[in-house]
């Protein structure tokens, strides 16, 4: 990366609150003209330099420039320009690409797909637990674990993976020590929208029996299509107190970013079966840039693949068994994915 300037705490919190994953630094450029044409060229060239998924998306960015550069002019108003930029960025179909026009007249555009809300309700699950322990606010716990009523099946839930790795070393080891006497475990990764890939790696390692490669990542370096960093190899390594009994991992379309790299890692653990819906399909880190006119844009700078070199960007990870909750079912008190997970474990 170049021209990296860390934002103030307030600005960082504002920008981070707008994205799918936890905060990356805001990338600021030199001060070009703020006119629509100059801002368009800055936006296009910033993606040309740093976007890591043109190959994966099979998108010719030069052709996109040829199409959209003829539509921009310096007489355009802010909303018209925002609509044009949104149309261009929609070609990426990338859940980690978004753009915000701050107030006055706040607007936000998200390039990726949208999925129904309400397919998971933690409160519904808490009603079925005979006991629970949680860290964080009672109404929105960061970590929650317990045991299902009338069973010896444990339950573990994470809200996100955005805390520092040490947080998970402390709390996952505590949770698994308390659940060590259970026969099986449901790990609920639904709604883990993102966080730190290192934290995801640590949590998944608590379920590993052997060292395994599960992911490799690289990052775009310049406008040259082949100019990437060397591959970074991500491995699981078993940790003391690992839970190696049967585990059902629940995923859904709300499982994204670091939640998906976590799922990539958990797939390598032979004691884990995955049930639910496909994950979101947005894996890469997504730093944020400020455009010359003050708008903020985020993009995927990395190319994240599984251990075999397969990218699931824009697709998501398919569970071993697809069970898709509907908002109507959940609002009526039924979590079919959880019911199926418990059924699988009780059959063991």
TrEMBL record:
Superkingdom of origin: Bacteria
Record protein name field: S41 family peptidase
Signal peptide: 1-21
Keyword line: Signal
Gene3D superfamilies linked: 2-enoyl-CoA Hydratase, Chain A, domain 1, 3.30.750.44
InterPro entries in alphabetical order: ClpP/crotonase-like_dom_sf (IPR029045), Tail-specific_protease (IPR005151), Tricorn_C1 (IPR028204)
SMART domains xref list: TSPc
Domain Tail specific protease per the UniProt entry, residue ranges: 117-324
């Amino acid at each position: 990366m170049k021209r990296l300037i860390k934002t103030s705490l307030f600005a960082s919190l504002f920008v981070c609150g707008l994205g799918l994953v936890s905060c990356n630094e805001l990338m600021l450029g030199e001060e070009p003209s703020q006119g629509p044409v100059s801002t368009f060229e800055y936006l296009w060239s910033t993606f040309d330099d740093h976007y890591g998924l043109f190959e994966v998306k099979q998108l010719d960015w030069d052709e996109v420039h040829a199409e959209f550069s003829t539509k921009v002019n310096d007489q355009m108003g802010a909303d018209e320009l925002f609509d044009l930029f949104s149309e261009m960025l929609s070609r990426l179909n990338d859940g980690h690409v978004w753009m915000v026009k701050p107030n006055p007249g706040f607007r936000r555009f998200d390039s990726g797909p949208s999925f129904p809300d309400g397919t998971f309700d933690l409160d519904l699950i808490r009603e079925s637990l005979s006991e629970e322990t949680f860290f964080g606010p009672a109404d929105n716990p960061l970590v929650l674990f317990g045991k299902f009523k009338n069973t010896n099946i444990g339950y573990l839930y994470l809200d996100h993976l955005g805390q520092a790795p040490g947080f998970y070393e402390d709390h996952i080891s505590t949770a698994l020590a308390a659940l060590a006497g259970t026969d099986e475990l449901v790990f609920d990764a639904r709604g883990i929208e993102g966080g730190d890939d290192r934290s995801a790696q640590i949590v998944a390692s608590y379920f590993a029996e052997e060292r395994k490669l599960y992911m490799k990542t690289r990052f775009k370096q310049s406008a040259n299509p082949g100019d990437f960093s060397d591959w970074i190899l991500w491995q699981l390594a078993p940790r003391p107190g690992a839970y190696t009994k049967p585990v059902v991992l629940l995923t859904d379309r709300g499982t994204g970013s670091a939640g998906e790299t976590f799922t990539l890692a958990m797939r390598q653990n032979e004691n884990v079966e995955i049930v639910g819906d496909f994950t979101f399909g947005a894996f890469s880190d997504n730093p944020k840039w400020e455009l010359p006119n003050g708008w903020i844009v985020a993009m995927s700078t990395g190319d994240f693949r599984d251990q075999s070199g397969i990218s699931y960007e824009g697709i998501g990870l398919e569970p071993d068994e697809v069970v898709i909750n509907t908002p109507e079912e959940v609002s009526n008190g039924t979590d079919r994915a959880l019911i199926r997970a418990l059924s699988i474990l009780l059959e063991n």
